[in-house]
Write a structure and sequence with these properties.
heterotrimer; A: alpha+beta; T-fold; eight-stranded antiparallel beta sheet; three-stranded antiparallel beta sheet; about 30% helix; globular; B: mainly alpha
Chain lengths: ~290, ~70, ~375
């Protein structure tokens, strides 16, 4: 059966739906799934001043903001990630972006980092499933750590609910399978080589589930010989520095992405931790050594 | 009338007593289609209509539909 | 015990993220159902005339559900029935103490058309809806109007449910000059007023319970003009108590037990118990998904005060030999099934209903009730979502 491809840009990434089936029906379904991705982007955008996320952040130190169940569910998820990573993953750490400019090729000073660290404190956030209150002015949260993966899952669910059974959702490299190919041969997915991200270092064949990668090549700068990547530790404000990339396979893209990010954050200890999780993975360290059970 | 009072007591106890709090994001199972009472509105509408016309008692549902002169 | 890994904890939390709050469904659905309803013949040895064939009804239902704007959802239904056959006009006890059933003579053929429209608005704290229903037959017409609402309280653990409806029916019996009862009924009204209050409670991740009280008052011409010696009160107050319990079960690809109990009584002396159970089982079969649901129902009622099998009861006094006002019990068994494929769903349902005076739980008597009906229904249908 023919393949249908639908591409668009969302969440600052190239997005792709690849599907098999009746073409007229697929077109309609693609628009609905794209609308779902855009809904999530708009709701949790850092850049739109009218987004729910911006409202929460603007109310920091002033008042609580009412939230809906979806947001509460995501906050609950973020809280678990915070717990599982012993605080290294923290959705209040986005404020570090203000001083980490990866286009500038200059490092922030330790002094300025120290002024921001007190604002990174998920444990101090008061929230329940009706509302959230960030207790200090200038504090902020963002869902950049898992929003794209979450959107991939939701888009795949839109397709599934519309009866589409063969296809995949690819949001900037975060993959969620809607269903196996019609001939059940599986979808061949390339895993980027962290040294040369335009090339694949390995391929996996996915029949179901999801795959997500966290890599030091996504946004970084070189200062001297040292690479500084965009994955920042909430306790120090400095980038992680052990893994070049971590790829995880899991039933849900959201979970695959978080396991990959948490492994990056755990640095050296991530190897043992990831092995405990009973998932398929491929981790490549800064020296290019592969660590995998694929 | 006693029955009404008893039922009110039972239902208010239900509310107050410690039904474990189920957060909205823990309701995945409750929202599955097999749990829905309204998954086939046409089917339940016809069932209600048949029992309404063939039995001596009716009601108890939430919205009464149109009557009929069925016999 | 296996250690709870981050993977399993995160997976559980991820699955549980609800899409959005209380939002209106976004799919449009077109549905069609065809049902054949067939009553078994009445017992020849208890039937006065040679005519023993009872009703058969062919029912076509068309459904259309659509969102309107962001927060409204409208459900509509058109039902068309063609009935033919005969129905009991009287049951009396003969000199030997045996019940004798008198059937309406010639086989009649009638149509009924029924239209319902129900808009519903979704709020973050609940819903508010309305209902307009019109039903028309050549000898009866009905118009009904209702309002209903739900309100989520106590962190959405609890939902209050309420509804209210009124109906106004008018009788116009065929061949009104054939009997005094028919001519008296011609142009008479039957009105109803109903209230329902309920409370729905989430017990835990797997279980919900709903309990409710309903009250209905009927006034006007409540007798049956086609039956002999049928004189009923001009008002009827009905009360119901109902409980619904639902439990999710992790069996195969997911299942749920639905159980309902209803207690009913009215000021005609009728009291009834209804219990029904349904097991909804989901199965993934490659490209298809099937929901198969076997069901079982038991119903038992006690007779109305004025039910009697006197052939010639005292003139002017309340009287009816309608089998629906007698003491009896009934079983329904059956199943519903749904096969889902892409945007399509095929339905196939079957039910068998048997009723008998000996199945009564309470208030049974030695009198036979040959008018009690046994019927079966077979339904085939299709849904298209877009």
């Amino acid at each position: 059966m023919d393949f249908h491809q639908h591409t668009f840009t969302a969440m600052a990434s190239p997005c792709k739906f690849l599907l098999q089936g009746d073409s007229h029906h697929i077109k309609q379904a693609c628009l609905k799934a794209q609308a779902e991705v855009q809904r999530i982007e708009e709701k949790f955008s850092r850049y739109r001043h009218d987004s729910l996320l911006q409202t929460i952040n603007n109310n920091a130190g002033i008042k609580a903001t009412k939230i809906d169940e979806e947001t509460a569910g995501l906050l609950n998820y973020a809280q678990l990630c915070h717990q599982q990573s012993d605080g290294l993953f923290d959705i209040t750490s986005g404020i570090l972006r203000q001083v980490w400019d990866f286009k500038s090729n200059t490092l922030p000073t330790e002094q300025i980092l120290q002024t921001l660290l007190p604002l990174i404190n998920w444990s101090s956030v008061q929230w329940d499933h009706h509302s959230i209150f960030l207790p200090q002015k200038k504090m902020e949260i963002d869902f950049g750590g898992f929003g794209k993966e979450y959107a991939a899952d939701r888009a795949a669910e839109v397709f599934q609910s519309l009866g589409i059974q063969h296809g995949l959702v690819d949001l900037g490299g975060d993959i969620r399978i809607i269903g196996d190919k019609t001939d059940k041969s599986g979808w061949d997915i390339g895993i980027r080589d962290p040294q040369r991200p335009e090339l694949a270092i390995s391929y996996v064949t996915l029949h179901q589930g999801a795959m997500a990668t966290s890599g030091h090549y996504e946004r970084f700068m070189m200062v001297g010989d040292q690479r500084y990547c965009h994955i920042l530790k909430a306790n120090t404000g400095w980038p992680v520095n052990h893994w070049a990339s971590v790829t995880v396979l899991a039933p849900q893209c959201l979970v695959a992405g978080s396991l990959a990010t948490l492994t990056m954050l755990a640095e050296k200890d991530g190897a043992d931790w990831l092995q405990e999780q009973d998932v398929a993975f491929l981790a490549i360290d800064n020296q290019g050594a592969k660590f995998s059970n694929l | 009338m006693n029955n009404i009072i008893l039922l009110s007591i039972i239902t208010s106890c239900l509310v107050i007593s410690g039904c474990s709090t189920v957060k909205p994001w823990q309701r995945g199972y409750l929202s599955k289609d097999v749990m829905s009472s309204a998954s086939d509105p046409l089917g339940s509408s016809l069932d209600n209509h048949i029992y309404f016309s063939k039995e001596g008692s009716s009601g108890g549902g939430q919205a009464a539909g149109g009557g009929c002169g069925c016999n | 015990m296996k250690k709870l890994t981050a993977f399993s904890a995160l997976s559980a939390a991820a699955i549980a993220i609800p899409c959005q709050g209380d939002v209106a469904p976004t799919d449009k659905t077109l549905s069609y159902r065809y049902t054949h309803y067939q009553e078994a013949d009445s017992p020849r040895e208890r039937t006065f005339t040679a005519e023993t064939g009872r009703y058969q009804i062919d029912v076509s239902q068309f459904g259309y559900r659509t969102p309107v704007g962001d927060s409204w959802y409208v459900t509509s239904e058109l039902q068309y029935e063609t009935m033919s056959g005969a129905s009991p006009t009287q049951t009396y006890k003969n000199a030997d103490g045996k019940s004798t059933l008198v059937m309406s003579g010639a086989s009649i053929e009638e149509n009924r058309i029924d239209i319902k429209v129900a808009p519903k608005k979704y709020f973050s704290e609940g819903t508010a809806g309305g209902l307009l229903a019109v039903s028309k037959e050549n000898d009866y017409q009905s118009i009904a109007f209702g309002l209903d609402g739900t309100l989520n309280i106590l962190d959405k653990q609890t939902t209050l449910v309420g509804s209210f409806s009124v109906s106004n029916d008018e009788l116009s019996p065929t061949d009104a000059d054939l009997s005094v009862a028919r001519s008296e009924a011609d142009g008479r009204k039957k009105r109803s007023f109903s209230l329902y209050e309920g409370i729905s409670q989430v017990i835990d991740k797997y279980r919900t319970l709903q309990a409710g009280i309903g009250f209905t008052q009927l006034t006007g011409y409540l007798s049956d003009p086609y039956k002999f010696e049928d004189r009923r009160p001009e008002s009827r107050d009905q009360i119901t108590f109902s409980v619904q319990y639902k439990q999710y079960a992790n069996v195969l690809d997911g299942a749920a037990l639905h159980s309902n109990y209803r207690y009913y009584y009215d000021d005609w002396g009728i009291a009834s118990h209804t219990i029904d159970l349904k097991w909804a089982q989901s199965l993934n079969l490659g490209k298809f998904r099937v929901i198969a649901s076997p069901l079982l129902r038991y119903y038992s009622q006690e007779k109305a005060d004025f039910y009697s099998l006197e052939q010639t009861p005292v003139a002017g006094e309340l009287n009816s030999s309608d089998y629906r006002l007698s003491s009896y019990g009934a079983f329904t068994m059956g199943f519903t099934s749904e096969l889902k494929f892409q945007q399509w769903a095929l339905h196939f349902d079957w039910q068998q209903y048997i009723s008998n005076e000996s199945l009564a739980l309470f208030g049974g008597s030695d009198d036979e009730t040959p008018g009690l009906v046994n019927f079966s229904t077979v339904t085939a249908g299709i849904d298209y979502k877009f």
